[in-house]
Design a protein that fits this description.
With 182 residues, this protein is of the alpha/beta class. It has one domain: TIM Barrel (Alpha-Beta Barrel). It has three helices and five strands; from the N terminus they run ββαβαβαβ. It has a five-stranded mixed beta sheet, covered by helices on one side. α2 links the parallel β3 and β4.
């Protein structure tokens, strides 16, 4: 059965990509191009509402920034050529949502935990600018790593932070900082 991109389908998969995926975002009212720096599923929180299945193993922890850029470049080339909406599965997006709303660091864990986050943020901004795509780069984060120098300095590449601080009580989330990469 072919995939339909809509509000219900938030799978972080697109073709054979490891890092770049696409979802139709209710909040952004359009297509969000997701950037998953955590195919290893590493997160420094363990939130009960998280949809990531951590019972199955993830991939390698090292982020291949060149591979991420290659995946993003292929998708942005479709956008630039005006061919995105005629290409499966994008051809299934409702007409009123057929716009690229953002590039979003999100995915299977806290996006700021990989050592490669600064290089990835810089590379994504450069790719967006090369394609003259006028959309924000967003970081969906639990904010626990923002004060680390390598993360803090990379925030210059990010247009908008979406901070989720649901760990406010031990009943809603139990953090496990030992699992975070520094």
């Amino acid at each position: 059965m072919p995939r339909t991109l809509d509000f219900k389908d938030h799978r972080r998969e697109l073709e054979a990509n490891r890092y770049v995926y696409a979802v139709v975002s209710r909040r952004a009212r359009g297509l969000s191009i997701g950037l998953n720096l955590n195919p290893d599923k590493v997160c420094n929180f363990d939130c009960p509402y998280c949809q990531v299945d951590r019972t199955t193993p993830g991939g390698p922890s090292e982020v291949d920034v060149a591979a991420l850029v290659g995946e993003l470049e292929r998708l942005l080339a479709l956008v630039a050529a005006g061919a995105l909406w005629s290409t499966p599965p994008f051809d299934t997006v409702a007409p009123e949502l057929r716009r690229v709303a953002d590039l979003a660091f999100a995915g299977d864990g806290e996006p700021t935990t990989p050592r490669e986050f600064p290089a990835a943020a810089r590379a994504v901004r450069e790719a967006r600018d090369r394609h003259r795509l006028a959309v924000p780069i967003r970081l969906l984060t639990n904010a626990t790593m923002l004060e680390r120098e390598r993360v803090h300095s990379a925030l210059a590449e990010i247009d908008e932070l979406r901070v989720f601080r649901s760990r406010a009580s031990s009943r809603t989330c139990s953090g496990s900082p030992a699992s975070a990469r520094s």
